Amino acid sequence: MMVAVSLLVVLALSVYLPSRVLSLGVDHVTTTAEHRNVDLPDGSLVELGAASGLDVQFSDSDRLVKLRSGEAFFNVKSGDARPFTVKAGGVSVVVTGTAFNVRLADETVTVAVEKGSVEVRMPPVETAPGEMEPVLRQVQAGEQLVARADGTIEQGPVPAAEAGAWRRHSLHVDGATVGEAIAHLRRYHGGWIVVTDGTLLRQRLSGFYDLRDPVASLRAVVGPFGAQVRPISVLIIVSAP
Predict the structure, then answer these.
(1) How many CB atoms are closer than 10 A to CB 227?
(2) Burial, 1: exposed, middle or buried (Cβ in 10 Å; 0-12, 13-18, 19+)?
(3) Dihedral angle at the C-alpha atoms of 135, 153, 19, 64, nearest 10 degrees?
(4) Where is mean pLDDT largest: 1-5, 13-17, 66-70?
(5) What confidence tier does 128 reach under pLDDT thresholds 50, 70, 90?
(6) Fold agreement between 13-159 and 169-241
(7) What percent of the chain has a predicted confidence (pLDDT) above 90?
(8) Which of 223, 144, 241, 147 is nearest to 178 (CA)?
(9) What is the overall mean pLDDT for the chain?
(10) How far apart (Å, rounded) are the C-alpha atoms in residues 60 and 144?
(11) Dist. CA 167–CA 17, nearest whole Å
(12) Smallest Cα–Cα separation from 141: which of 164, 123, 122?
């Protein structure tokens, strides 16, 4: 019994402490399953998703926002000559006036545009021996771009209304890995999700899932692959059949 209690304490701290550490020195932070509106100095609006962190750095020459974790939907006010830049990991999104969503995960940065267009700038790649060139992509309304840590880039259509579907408590994934979907659900579950099967995390799926019930959504995500979900207090174990 003491071992079980100790394990639950460790798991609880592992959930609680990272969010506390994240909040240190960050301008705007949300906790598990919390959404928050952030009014920017230029009149733009940011809707900050669950377990997310955001820094705002405006100057006379530019408007810079850094997404430290999680995701956010940006509705950028037009009519300001200063470029508006969102940095997430190694990716920069540059706009003037538009509405788009940025999601930062461990292995990916996803940009989905609801209206207008954005320019996505990614880390330079070697095009010739000794020559490095930045990667630039234009993403239009109704498009989504996924930049992965391994250098691969996926760009394709997405319903404009589904850019930032989390604002309506819906997780929309299209060709994402199970690991990416679970990473998103973790921000809405006030506990710990452990996956014992690495192969499962690499499987791909598409669909809509209810963020208001992350446990049921987790079952819906892994169920088609035969995996089992076992909640044990704050711990959820996902295992192969």
Answers:
(1) 20
(2) exposed
(3) 30
(4) 66-70
(5) low
(6) no
(7) 70
(8) 223
(9) 87
(10) 31
(11) 26
(12) 164
Q: Looking at the domain 13-159, which fold is it?
A: Jelly Rolls (2.60.120)
Q: Which residue has the tokens 């705007």?
A: 28
* Buried/exposed code over 155-194 (b: 16+ C-beta within 10 A; e: otherwise): beebebebbbbbeeeebbbbebbbbbbbbbbbbbbebbbe
Tens digits of per-residue pLDDT, 7-33?
444 444 444 444 444 455 789 999 999
Three-state SS string over the chain comes to CHHHHHHHHHHHHHHHHHHHHHHCCCCEECCCCCCEEEECCCCCEEEECCCCEEEEEECCCCEEEEEEEEEEEEECCCCCCCCEEEEECCEEEEECCCEEEEEECCCEEEEEEEECEEEEEEEEEEEECCEEEEEEEEEECCEEEEEECCCCEEEEECCHHHCCHHHHCEEEEEEEEHHHHHHHHHCCCCCEEEECCHHHHCCEEEEEEECCCHHHHHHHHHHHHCCEEEEECCEEEEECC
Residue 224: other Cβ atoms inside 10 A: 11
Alpha-carbon gap, residue 76 to 13, rounded angstroms: 37
Average pLDDT over residues 129-145: 87
Q: Which residues contact 164 (CB under 8 A, 6 or more apart)?
A: 47, 71, 73, 100, 101, 112, 114
Tell me: the pLDDT tens digits for 181-213? 999 999 999 889 999 999 999 999 999 999 999
In the CATH hierarchy, which top-level class contains the domain 169-241?
alpha beta
Nearest to 70 by CA among 98, 38, 42: 38
Domain ranges for the chain: 13-159, 169-241
